[in-house]
What we know:
alpha+beta, 4 domains, five-stranded antiparallel β-sheet, five-stranded mixed β-sheet
Amino acid sequence: MRRHGVLLTVLFALSVTLLSVSYTFWELYKLNKTQYIDSIYTKHTVILQLYREHIQKRTSPAMFEANLAINKFRFVNERAEHQAVIRFGEVLKSESYQTSSKQFLIPNQLYINRINREDVVVSMIEYKRDIFFLIKGDGKEALLIDERLKPYTPWNLFTAYLSILSIIVISFILILQRLRPLRRLQTKIARYGAGNMEVGFKMRGEDEIALISNELEATRLKINALIESRTLFLRNIMHELKTPITKGRIASQMLTDSKQQQRFNGIFERMEVLISEFALIEEVTSGSQVEEASEYRLIDVIDGAIDMAMVEREAVDVAVDAGVKVEVDFRLYATAIKNMIDNAIKYSPDGKVRIYMKGNEIYFENRGEKLQHPLAYYVEPFTKDQPSKNSFGLGLYLVDSILKSHAQVLAYEYVDGNSCFIFTQ
Length: 425
């Protein structure tokens, strides 16, 4: 899973929740506003009823205005205000009706004294947080204001929305707080995997993260104990082996037969090489070499490897630019190159090896037969190409381990009768 996957999932869930809640409240707002407008629009029926009574009973204009005032309606007579409401007001609802009349009242104008059927349009307008009713009929219009009505205010809905929004945001913050120990645990695991064996995972609490952390702490202690036990065992074995080898080499010097003396010396030297390789393998697998990596010239590392291999300089053809630098553990990387030189010279008919670079890859080329098995077979310890030939011992296995500790791999190709072992990324 990609980095911060849990956090992204929580953020996605939060976003979907916020969008869903916001959309729901927006729909509720529109529905409540429509219902509120429909409910207050019924006020126009009072106006029409008063108007019909005025027409039918032929009451005086003063009486008509008094009846409107009783119901908290008044005419807007100021022309500027009238025009402003018509021009800038928001029409909330408008409907058309038919009515019979002898007179139609228009403020500051004469009455029309004829009986006819008129189409009366009643519009409800909101302007500056006041509600107005505009009545149009027979080419004339009258504007009334209802002093009791106010526009729709969704304060209750808005308060509920903010409350739910706050709960969601607080829940998200709490989730992040709960994830913080998990992120710290991930950092500690990474440090432990990088070789810091003293990192502690112990955590107080009874939640799931604390239980996992404490289990990791118990596992860490067991792993450290096993590593320490293995290291101690290997060191004791190597120490115990070196003592008889030293005694054997001293005793071999007392032999009068030179052939037997050389044979025993060869056996003891081989045993010392194996012990040294075991020590290097233990060091490589422990991870301690990572902290010792520094930048060196590759040519210097190769020279150090040639010295370790104790071979003639003429047997190694080095075609590497002196300016090429590598960031490695000098001793381990030189050991890997030394093992490649040893194997190349050992299995080459002419006893020579050529070292050169292609791009960022280091090539070890020698004459010889093609490997009979995949390279993975030969990087195992003590493999043999053929039963009649010498064992590869720990050479390639050690090379492969050292390269892996440097984030590199060992590759192989066979071209024109030449075997090429490659150090590559």
